[in-house]
Amino acid sequence: MSFKIIVDSCCDLTPALLHNSAFCKVPLTIQVGPHTFVDDDTFDQANLLWRMKESEEAPKTSCPSPAAYLEAFDCGADDIYVVTLSALLSGSHNSAAQARLMFLEDHPGVRIHIFNSCSASSGEVLVALKVLELAQSGLDFNAVVQQTSRFINEMGTLFVLETLDNLRKNGRLTRLQSLVTGTLKIKLLMGATPEGEICKRGQALSMKQALSKMVELMAKDPAHSGRTLCITHCNCLERAFQLKEMALKSCKFGEILICETGGISTVYANDGGIVAAY
Fold it and tell me: Average pLDDT of 21-30?
């Protein structure tokens, strides 16, 4: 049985992985003032970072339309797996669900499952890679869905940002968090709840301390041993390698993958942000 893995563009797969014909990416769109960025191969990260820095308004993001997902579904595959960013953070999952209902009306023999990653960026990458691993191993559709769903429930996501301006502008932080971080320059170590909401996991006075606390949290989790750690960075490759070295010393990951933020992840991670999932 042929299969396809469709991801939204918050899934920050490496260019090499995107060349794998098993993957297809559906782009979201970003609006900064009068400037529009499509999160596809035309995306210019440096330009987006500059426009966000210059704008006093929050950047706005638009999820893919059901029509965009419908076009991606028309790929000739028997089994289609869709990975979206957290349904609590974007309408991408809902658009995919609407498209699924419409597509199956005309293609009743195709099987489609939509995974709510309950995460973003690095988390989506790991979910997509898990689907690829399981589907390539020859498991049937239901087994792939069941095991991937279990993987999502057990996955951890952590992130620390150089600046929280975009999260603040978009109302993702409480007023108290905005006041404290803005006044004292505190770095918040954030994470995702099991449902996919953003939550605070700690704080530090510097980025290096925040990364150290991130590694401490991962090392304390007995379930991390042997897993893949995916580190996604926004314009800070050196910082990503620093986190990798810290994790190699303190943790027991089986593999560490480094990726770069695409457009949507760049909006929320902002310049210097690090997202890690395992």
Answer: 98
